[in-house]
Amino acid sequence: MSDIPIKVNNLSKRYRIGLKEELHDTFVGSMVEWFKSPFSNYKKVKSLSTFSNNGESDDIIWALKDVSFEVKRGEVLGIIGKNGAGKSTLLKILCRITGPTNGQISINGRIASLLEVGTGFHSELSGRENVYLNGTILGMTKSEIDKKFDQIIDFSGVEEFIDTPVKRYSSGMKVRLAFSVAAHLEPEILLIDEVLAVGDLEFQRKCLGKMEEVSQSGRT
After folding, report:
1. Residue 53 and which of 22, 128, 156, 197 are 20 to 30 A apart at CA?
2. Sign of the four-CA dihedral 59, 96, 166, 209
């Protein structure tokens, strides 16, 4: 694996705010707008995918702008910022959930991510089935997952409910199993959002210890 698993150059991401609500002072004005709305709303929706050359407008927000960094193999990087700073957007771009507006990213290695409660789980499947589903998505064989299965369940602490559909799990149970799956199936890159805040303090400490172990093994 490359010594630079993650490299980001001049990354930017912009969003356009949706349709604006227009207020009307009179009943007649409201009725006129009602008849016009199919045509005016079509124009507005069409314009949502169109940006000006400089990308500046009252209805455009930049979640990220000109972000550059690299993460070395085995390195642990924490991103700190206030709400709306673009932390989650950055992680979604790194996970290929959404694309950047400008800039480039280079990812070298398999990624396991834990961005939101229940991410990567099929709610109708049991915990056991979801473990194998996630391992398969990461490119692992059944025998490879079998070797890790007991460790995953033991770490998560949900062994009593492992054959219960995930839709019956509490948020905390989902996070415990999801983190255990992500950390034990040996991806080269592990991306985690603030979703661990859902878990209790003891489990958070357990997760931090596991992340340190992942880092010492040369993973990022």
Report:
1. 22
2. negative
* 198 C-beta neighbours (distance < 10 Å), count: 17
Question: Could you please report the per-residue DSSP string of 39-50?
Answer: HHHHHHHHHTT-
DSSP label at residue 159: G
Mind listing the pLDDT tens digit for each residue in 32-85? 555 555 555 555 555 555 555 555 666 788 889 999 999 999 888 888 888 888
CA pair distance 134, 111, nearest whole angstrom: 11
The answer to whether residues 146 and 42 touch, using CB atoms and an 8 Å cutoff, is no
pLDDT tens, position by position, 98-134:
889 999 999 998 888 877 766 678 889 999 999 998 8
Contact 125, 174 (CB under 8 A): no
Residues 6 or more apart whose Cβ sits within 8 Å of residue 66: 10, 11, 12, 103
Structure tokens at 179: 């983190």
The β-bridge relationship of strands 6-16 and 189-192 is unpaired
Domains and CATH numbers, the chain: 6-11+64-107 (no CATH), 18-58 (no CATH), 111-216 (3.40.50.300)
**What token pair was written down for 156?**
């998560």
Interatomic CA distance for residues 6 and 72, integer angstroms: 7
